[in-house]
Request: fold
Amino acid sequence: MVDLTATPPITQGLPKTIGAATLTLAQPDVMWSVAPFRGRDAAVAKALGDLPAPNRSKSRGGTEITWFSRGEFMVIGTVPDAGLAKDAALTDQSDAWCVLELKGAGAEDVLARLAPVDLRQRTVKRGHCLRTQLNHMGVHITRTGNEAFRLMCFRSMAGTMVHELTDAMDALRARG
Reply:
């Protein structure tokens, strides 16, 4: 029998600090998609301790529940109770996504070069999240702090996301 070893979605070039921004791999141990069955939202909310509103994320005791798209939430940091399967479709997403963290005074400026949405703090506050494009790939972005974002893309696009972000970081540093 072949012995498989888990590997991170990106293994080279991180962490990287360029100018006023730092990019790091922030891969959580577990991530589960929870999609409530029709009419079962209340039961799922009761089991998970409330569901965030669209474009919002909630953290409690090392677990984060993030709105991920219409009718779908991502539970990050813990495995949902198996009994929840009667009320929602549960899917282990732990190895499907690349999760990066972009921090620093230049984080908003880096993302402004790549994403067609206003991510300034007056618009996207801590705990706000959205699905959008990062240049040409789909991403999920959550503001995790005043100058910090969590960026998620499909694992297959990890190298491209790092390349796009570091190019934007380089361009901002070159402006001085």
Remarks:
- The longest strand covers residues 137-145.
- Residues 158-175 form the longest helix (18 residues).
- The radius of gyration is 17 Å.
- DSSP finds three helices and eleven strands in the chain.
